[in-house]
Amino acid sequence: MLLDRAPWHTTAKLKLPRNISLIFLPSRAPELNPIENVWQFLRVHWLANTIFDDMDHIINAAYNVWNNLVAPPTIRSIGLTKWAYKGQR
After folding, report:
1. What is the pLDDT of residue 60?
2. Tens-place pLDDT, residues 7-31
C-alpha cells in the first residue's frame, strides 16, 4: 500500500495484515500524491473558514462539494498541473 507520511500512517499502533506491505512516499512531495490536490481544492473553494450550525449542514455541504468536485471541468482543473506536462506538447 502506498502512503504519505502522515502521522496516522506511521504510528506503531497501526495493525496490518501479514499480506500488506507499506511503501511511503518521500516527505514534501505532494505531486506524487494526487489526493492532496483534491483536499487543497476542497479547502480553498468550499470549506475554508466555514462554521456549520449542525450535522445536517455539514452533510449538505459535503454533498454539494462532492457534486461540484466530480464535474468534468473541476476534475480537469485539479488534475492538470504544469509539472505533469513538462516536455510534452
Report:
1. 92
2. 888 888 888 899 999 999 998 877 7
Instruction: Assess whether pLDDT exceeds 60 at residue 86.
Output: no
Residue 17 gets the label, from left (phi > 0), alpha (psi -120 to 50) or beta, of beta
Instruction: Enter the DSSP assignment of 33.
Output: -
Residue 78 identity (one-letter amino acid): I
Dihedrals phi, psi of 14, to nearest 5 degrees:
-70, 120
Query: Which of 32, 31, 41 minimizes the C-alpha distance to 76?
Result: 41
Asked whether 27 and 6 are in contact (CB, 8 A), the reply is: no
Q: pTM score, two decimals? A: 0.54
Give Cβ neighbours of residue 83 (< 8 Å, ≥ 6 apart). 31
C-alpha cell at 15: 495493525
Locate the DSSP E strands across 1-89.
2-3, 23-24
